[in-house]
Structure formats: structure tokens, C-alpha cells
Amino acid sequence: MNIPLSTTTINRRAFLGGAGLSLGSAALNMLMANNSTKPRYLLPKARAKRVIFLCMAGGPSHLETFDYKPKLDQLHNQPMPESFTKGQPIAQLQGKELKVQGHLTKFKKYGQGGQYISDYLPWTAKMADDIAIIRSMVTEQINHDPAHTFMNTGTAISGRPSMGAWVNYGLGSEAEDLPGFVVMTSVGGRNPQPIASRQWSAGFLPSRFQGVEFNSTGDPVHYVRNPKGVSAQDQKKLINTITALDRHRNLTINDPETDTRIAAYEMAFKMQTSVPELMDVSKEPQHILDMYGAVPGDGSYASNCLLARKLAEKGVRFIHLYHRGWDHHGGLEKYMDTCCQLTDKPTWALIQDLKQRGMLDDTLVIWGGEFGRTPMYQGKGDIGRDHHIKGFSMWMAGGGVKGGIGYGETDELGYHAVKDRVHVHDMHATMLHLLGIKHEFFTVKHQGLDWKLTGVDHSHVVKDLIA
Amino acid sequence: MNLLIPIALSFLPLLWTYAKLDFNRDVRPILSDKCFSCHGPDEEGRKADLRLDIEEHAKDDNMLAIVEGEPEESEVIFRIHSDDEDELMPPPEIGKPLSEKEKDIIEQWIAEGAPWADHWAYVKPEWTDPPMPKNSDWSGHWIDRFTLTDTENKMLVPAKDADPVSLARRLHFDLTGLPPESKTVKSFVKDPNPTAYKALVDQLMDSDHFGERMAVYWLDLVRFADTVGYHGDQPHNISPYRDWVIRAFNDNMPYDQFTREQLAGDLLPGSSVQQKVASGYNRLLQTTHEGGLQLKEYDAIYAADRVRNVSEVWMGATVGCAQCHDHKYDPYTINDHYSLASFFADLADRGFTGNKLPTDRPPEIQIHTDENSLKLRDLTKEIDHTLSKKKQSELKNLEDRKGKLSQSLKKAKDANKTQWQEKIDRINQQLAQVAKPAVLQKYRKLLREKKGVEDKGRWTMVSQAVKPRVMRVLPRGNWMDDSGPIVLPAVPEFLGKIDSDKKRLDRLDLANWLTDTEDGIGLLNARVLANRIWYLLFGKGLAPDLTDFGGQGTPPDHPQLLDNLAISLVEKDWNLKAFIKDILMSRTYRQASLPPNGYKSFQLARRLPAEFVRDNTLAVSGLLVDKIGGPSVKPFQPTGYYRHLNFPKRTYEEDSGESQWRRGLYVHWQRQFLHPMLKAFDAPSREECSAERPQSNTPLAALVLLNDPTFLEAAKSFAQKISTHGGNTFETKLTYAFEEALSRAPDKYEHETLASLFTEHSNKAEENWTPIARAVLNLAETNLRR
């Protein structure tokens, strides 16, 4: 595997910043020093170089996407058997009558693997052989905010690093003039889930590893544009003056941080050009725009998928896209239509585009929400489903994942994951494994403890998902 | 590290020996990190029934794990050197192998007789007479005798004193978070009187900005923020608590009282309004207002949050780690965790939902500015003077009855209306008899006026004890598991217990115990605090892990100095100003940072904290409005930054006028989306306790200083100031700019470089100082405390 930081260009150092917190920099320093002793957590081989995580915030229903249960239709409208729900956590249906809600769509088998995929996802169905569907996901948090935090950081307690920060901490960034962890959220659809910037926090890792939000409208990165009335030339002159004066003064005061700061200013200036250029998709060929369904500058999920590909090309290590409209307590049919129309085709296009550029092989794409939805009916304005954490579906593609397979099963009503259960920590372990990281050894000391993304309990790499 | 000086013995080339080992410094950290997770305090995770964290167990005759003076008899030594993967310790699959050096240390320690000592942080500090350094001329201050001895032992020379300009700037930033005025620096530099330094210290400690500076740190510790944190991240009412903290530091409230008022201000006898405001501490945690929350689950989340914070702030301990099982490294049990949580079980902070802004989180009280409090007092007097209390209540009764009758009249059928009207007329007659119309009119006017003033009050969350809910130990932290035993409030068992006849201890007992230097952990607490103040004044704690004094934290470099500091803090009756001043008067504090090789300084140069980066720029530019306290303010912020917030959706409405130019500590603290400027300069989101901020140095921070409208406005204002007050020539103006921003004159190179920026800039409006103002405000040195 290509260890990205084994060469130490000054610019790359600059983005990564200065001394930062001493506790976090150990792993990187080791890499940066071009040291022959590789960190213990690095596996001999990596299958993926980067991750594109497509977060369907709000929790898409597994029962209307990937998990077909004929029994659910048979028991439709009948009381939910108590054997399933007794003693289980429950969100908005607390104290309500629990009855079975049959599928709100039809399923067919697709691809050589014969994967069940619902009619809501015709484009995903076309690429059934590219993706590995996990139908036995479980998480530990039933409300949105902590469930997102759990999905991203492996715990519901605030202040821990997000997986994108972890991955950059472990592998460094390959991007010359961009952050290694980029986050984008899309506009459009229904009333969106709130998403906290905690979701892309560096937690106790040095803040240089935090996700940087790229905006498709307004300034692509905060303060990346010159102030009004200041030309690029003037700005350049100003930055040159600042760095010259800093360099000069530092001959007297000898602050080692000042060198890093000078490099940060130089990089800031580069970003002022490179980021707006990158975020402008108008120069993409029309057929590519059409493939995604992207309109330059619209801030849509389609545009973000296209940008994700561009970021991947630039070497960004972790690209996290949020689409926030999947919390269907009611009006599920209508809103599934909305969400799927906005996301299904662009997701397909992203996979195809990566594939045609030969990038799917080393780009791991992960699709899923923070949880699934109940087999039980909820009626908050038309038929819907409540939050559900004991069994739901996600998929992975590319980056060494075996396409065209299904993994794991829920019970006959889609409630509990019963076969080949995949805990969120297992998903993290698998993702890290594909990136060439042995998760058990991938630790950071904080408050005296060795923290892992994959938690304290035994988590396992799902080997069956790997090609 | 430097304390372990390898002595190479030529006849024993394979064995390294070290100067005599210290158990706490050299050995315990290895045992803790590599052994305790399976052979430590956690009963559930313990392997082979072996404990290495307790001397009697480790040296048990049956186990022979450690045999004093006999490495070759000790099972531990055999195991750490074993070639057999099944026997090797630590087991390879754990991924924490011992280094050769660590093995040698363990071996040498056992050979030396395996002397044991209690963990340093759990032993009460003891006073050590300061050593006598060789160079007795350097300083007589007791702190200096420690630091100089250490410097001499390391064969180094103490760094020179900081130059007076740096020193004046250092004092200003450390004590007020604001830059000095150039005239202050000038007169300090010129003043030959050796008492000038002390005078400056006194002046700055008396400034109201001292409280602001200290509050910035305290608010990080207690995770003060303006919003709830989870899900919709709605604002809540709490800013008066922030002002209470500022005032407490300015009034030099002793730290024990400071602790009591925050943890239990509501429980103090005759609790004042300000003490109730202080008890808002217990409400600072993150809360959720998400629909579909499970009450029991959040009871558990909030309880754990409080345990984490109270233990990190006042104990320097991570008791939060014992939420699911006994602590792996420290003697905190899962019972201790829930017993500590139980102190807070009287707070009914639960079950708030809804999308109101600000959100409802009763109990809250309304407080008023001093001015308005006086107004209210006067108005009340005048009201009572206008109408006797008796008549007021008579009037109120009549009006209430009239109100009800009017309602009935409205609802009544036409046939019955007359009947109701007659009743109302009778009331009206009675009303007329209460007082003359003119009096009544005046009375009503005064009432309206009073209400107008009252409405200006700020609400703030407070603590209020209710019947405590039942607290159980939650096995593995699982809130759905009711099988654990019920626990009452108690302090961690190994630290003793609170002697009381009470049936149930309360938060006041806890606060007293935390600061009680005889029967509580006051002295341990003092060590935690002294270490943090040292960090604020020097840039690094004497014990480097500011929130973990446990077995996994790094032991202090200078344990005796730290102990003495803790004792001196207690002997000063927790007088923080006196304690800080004592340190400031040392020569160690006055050392130059960044000394050349061969010199030792305890001072570290560092970039200003986020808030002070803002304050410094605003102060230099002349825009700063340095009012103390008040509601949080909303400076310029990128459009759409809150677009991810929902329930309800939010648009950020920036303040106008003076609120735009307030200090950083008053900026609205949105936990989920902290102002990007504060975030870029490493301010924490305040979701959890934060005792030490990282110091990053990124392009995002550079972009803030370059392009954030606040900084641009400041540069324009600074340019205006330079043009107006900087004299008549380019030279005088540039000197003025440097003196304002850096407290010094520019040198030749700086002069030439900026002159070229001045002339070559394309915007040639007759005299445009904005580019130079921007350059100067962006300099590393402008934002550096050294």
C-alpha cells in the first residue's frame, strides 16, 4: 500500500498543521518521518484508499428498500406479536397500540445474485451485482442525534472522533490542497433531519483531522473568498507580506509554530483558488451531468455525488455525504418517492462513474442511515414507521467488497437481526480492514485510555463481505 | 524521561540499569497501561484472579507474581520474557507489548525490592521545604528554588527574564485576555522602580476583565453553552450563570464557596438569588428535546454526564469510565459511579420536548440588572405608597371576580345577560369605593411600568431539589436493566465517606466534601486546581493530564512543587487571586519563553485562545465594546451556517450596534454549530468538560483572520485609527500601528516590506491603510502570547 505521508512536502504538512495535540500526532509523525517502522495497526495490504459514505439521515425503512418479508404482508394490520417487542426499546410508539404494517411496495430479485430490491430503487436494482447488501445491521441508539453519533464515532457520548477523522489520523491525506475529510449535505426533499457538526468532529484527535464542510451554495468553505473589493492579486500580495514578516520576525523569536503558520497561510491562499474551482461542476461534460441528474450549483444530492467523485480524484480520504429526508413516521409512501427520486439515480451514477474511471476498485462506498424502521405501523399523517435499531439494512460497494451478495438476515417480520448480525462496530471494523487498518490495534490514548473506533467489546471484520 | 539516566555498564552489555526507580513515576505507569486492564480494579474483566494494582495481591505468597528482590523467582518476569505465545504477558493479541526498556524497569524494580507506594494523586499533598539551589542569587522565591534546582540538576542554565515588553503583554493576556495599551507598556518599560511589576500585577488583577479571562477557562470546564446540544440544539436560558462566574472571579470568591454555590447554591440556608443562579451549574449538561425520547434512557444519560463532569472538574478523575463496569485502571467501582450520580437524583431535569425557542427547561428564575433591580424596588415602594397592600389585594379580588363574571356574561344566553350584568355593576360600585379614580389610574400605570421592567429580566435555569428518583446501578450501563442494586448518594468508597447523621446525603454534602481539607478531598482537589492554574500561566501543567490524575495519567514532573502549590492554595483559604499573585511574583513566571539551547524555561509561548484572538483584534482596532456581562451576542457569521438545524428551522440574526463588538466569551455558544471563527481557533463545542485546548495551526484559521467580515471591519477601523492618530508621516503612522498591535516599533525590514505593500496595492485611494492594518493584525506575533 502506498503510505501517503511517507513523502513530506511542505504543503502537505501545512494542511495537516503544526504540533497540535501531542496525543494525536504520534501515528502521523511516525508516517511523516518516513520511518521504516510502520505503525502496528497497518495491515500489509489495503483494498481501499478512500471512503465515500452516503448517509441517508433519518433512517430509511429497510422494509421498503432491501428486506423482503412475505410474512409481514400476511400479518398486515394484526397486532404485532409481543414475543418480538417485549422489553425492547421504543421511540415514538411508546404507549401506543402496536400492529403489523405490511410492505408498502413490491420487491423483485435483481442481478446474478438474485438480490431482493424494492420498486422504490430502480437504479440501485440495476447495479445489484455491484453492491453487497447487509440485512442484519444493529445499532444501539434509537433517537436520531445519538444514533448518528453512534454511527459516526462508535459511541453516543459526545467528544469522540468521527470515523473520517479516525481514517485521516491513521492514513494521512493524499490531497495536496484539500482537507482529507470533506462533508457535504444536500438540499431538497422533505423536512430535513438536523445534523450536528459533532458528526464530523475530530473529537479528542487534533482538530486538523476534523471534517471540513463544503457548501454547494454560498462560500464553498467559510471565508474562502476574498473580501469584497479585494482582488486576487492584492490578496496574494498581502499574504506574501504576512509570511515574509512572520519569517523575518521569527529569526528573533524562534517560535517553531511560526513555520507551520507560514505554510498554513500559503495553503489558505491556494485553497482560495482550488476549492471554488473544484466545487464548480459546470465544466463537466453534459453527459456526465445528465448521468447524475446534476444541475451546477443546485446543492442537490446529485451534484454532491458528482463532487464526491471529483474529491475522490483529488485524493480526499473520506467523503461524507448527508441526505436528510428519511424520517418517515408518516406519509412513508409519498416521502419514499421524494427521497428515492432525489438519491437513487445519482447513487447509481456515482458507482458507474467511479467504475468507468477505474476508481471503484479502491474506493469504498457505503450507503445507509443511522437506523431502520419498525415493522409496526405508525400513523403520523398517513402510514409510516417508527425508528428501529434491532435490524436494518445497509450496503457497501467497491474497495474490495464482494458485489452481488446479501449478508445476514432479520427474523420473519424484519424485527431482529437473527443471522450473521453486523453491529455498527463490525461495520467500522470491516471498513478499516478494507482501508488496511487492523482495528484492534488502531488506538489513541485519551484521558489515560486507549480508544478505538470499534469500541471496547469484541468487534469483528465481516470477512464474507470481502472479495 | 530525563530522569532515567542509563548507566552503561561495560561488563554487562545487555542489561540497562537506571538511577534508582520511583514506583509512581517509573513503574506504576507501565503496570497500569500494560497490566491493569486484566489484572486491575475491574472485577469482571480480571484474569487468573490476579491483581497487580494492590501490593498485597501482587506480592501474594501463593501467586509469586512479584517476589521482592527476586526477579528470577517472580512469575511476572518469567511471563514478560516468555517465548511461548500462550505464556507471554501481556498477551500478544491485546496489542500492547512491553518495550525492552519497560521490561528492564520492571526487572530492576523487583531487584530493588519492589518498593510500593500509593498512587500519587490519592495521597494528600505534603509540604516539602524548597531545596537550596547552587545559585542562591537567582531568586529567593520558594517556587524558584524548586525550578532552579531542577534546571541545575539537568545541567541547564535558567532562561533569561522576559524583556519588559513581552512581560507586560504576557501579564495582560494572562490576567485579562486583552492586549495592553501602548502607553501602559511604555511607562512600564521606562519605570526603573522594581515595584512597577507588582503594581502592574495588582492593577490587572483588580480589573473587571480578570473575571472574564478566568471565566473563559471555567466555562470550558463546566461545558457552558447557550444551546441544549442534542437533536434540535435549541437555545436555553443560562447566560446569567456566565455572568455569575465572571463576578465570582472578580470578587475573588474563595474556591470552596465557589464550588458550594454551583453544586448546591439552592440548598444553602437562605439561598440568595445569585446563589440560585450559580446552581445553574447542574443544568449545563446537554439535553435532548427530541420527540420519542425514552425518559429512563435520558435519566441514565444525564446522570452519567453529571458524573463525568463533576469528577473531571473537581477530582481530576474519569469516574465516567465506571458507567458500565468497574474502572479498568483506577479504584472507582461501578457502584461509585451510580452513588455519585445519586447526589444529583433530586434534579428533575427530564422529559422536555417541543420546538420552542428558547426551549422550556424549568425551573428557571428571572433576574434583573442592578439598575433594574433598584427600579423595581422603587416602583414597588411607590405602588405600596399609592395604595395600601390591603387595598391592593381587595382590588385584585374584585378584578378577578369581575373577570370571571365577564366571561360568564359572554357565554350567557340573551335571556340571562341582564342578570350577569347586574352582578358586574355591583362589582364596579365596590371597585369605585376602593380608591379615587385618579389614585386607581396612577396605581395601574405604576403596575404597567413595573411589568415593563420585569419583562426585561433574563431567565436562567437553576437547581431545585425534588423528591429524589430511585438510582440503581445499571449493569453494563444498560438503562433497561433493573436488576442492579439501589444506591444512595455516596462518595467513591476508596476515598472515604461523608460522616453524617442524615438519612440521605445531598449535593451540599458533596460540595463540602470536595473542598473539605480535613475530612474530604479538599487537598486532592486543590492539587487539581493548582495544576490547572499553572497550566494557564505557563502553558503546560506540572502534571500534564489536566483531567486525569488517575493511574493512566502521566505523573507530575515536579510532584513536590505541585504538592506545595496545593497546600499554599489551601493555606490561603482558597484565595485564588493571592495564589495566582504568588506565582506571578516568582522569577520562573517571568522567564523568557523560547530560550536557546542549553537554557531552560518553564514558560511556553502559545497562540492566544480563540476568544482572545477576537478580543485582541477588536481592542487594537478600537472597535471593542468592553462591557461586562449580559445576554449572549451574535456577531457576523457566514450565511446559512445554521441550515442544518431544525425543530424548528433557524436563521441566524446577527446583532447590530455595540453587541456586534463584544468580547468572544459573550458570543452565542451554539453547541452543534459553534461560530466558525471560534471553532477554527480550537474553542471546544462544550459538549463535555475540556480542561486543555489544542493549539492547531490550519489554513481554516488563516482564512478567518484574512477574510472573516469581523476581522475585515476591524482592519478598516484600525486603518482609520492609524490615519487619525498616527501623526503625519508614513513613518510615524507605521510606528503607531506597530505600537498599538505589538507594543513595539517596526524594524527596518518590516518598514520596507510594509512600505512596498502600501505603494504597490492596487487600491490607490489617496491614503489606504487597510492593507497594512490587515497585515499587522494577521501577524503571528500579534496573536502570540509569549
Strand content of chain A: 15-25%
The CATH class of chain A, by name, is: Alpha Beta
Q: Rounded to an integer, what's the Rg of chain A over CA atoms?
A: 23 Å
Averaging pLDDT over every residue of chain A, what do you get? 89
Shape of chain A: globular
Number of domains of chain A: 1
The CATH architecture of chain A would be 3-Layer(aba) Sandwich
CA-CA gap between termini of chain A? 17 Å
Low-confidence stretches of chain A: 1-36
Strand content of chain B: under 5%
> Could you give the distance between the termini of chain B?
26 Å
Task: Explain the overall architecture.
The complex is a heterodimer of chains A (467) and B (786). Chain A has 467 residues and is an alpha/beta fold. Chain A has one domain (4-11, 39-217, 297-465): Alkaline Phosphatase, subunit A (3-Layer(aba) Sandwich), CATH 3.40.720. Chain A is 33% helix and 15% strand. In chain A, α11 packs parallel to α12 (332-356). Chain A is globular, with a radius of gyration of 23 Å. The model of chain A is unreliable at 1-36 (pLDDT under 50). With 786 residues, chain B is an all-alpha fold. Chain B folds into 4 domains: 6-117, no CATH class; 225-361 and 469-500, no CATH class; 369-456; 605-786, no CATH class. Chain B has 30 helices and 8 strands. In chain B, α12 runs antiparallel to α20. The radius of gyration of chain B is 32 Å and the shape is globular. The model of chain B is unreliable at 1-16 (pLDDT under 50). The chains are: A alpha/beta (467), B mainly alpha (786). At the A-B interface, α6, α8 and α9 of A face α14, α25, α26, α29 and α30 of B.
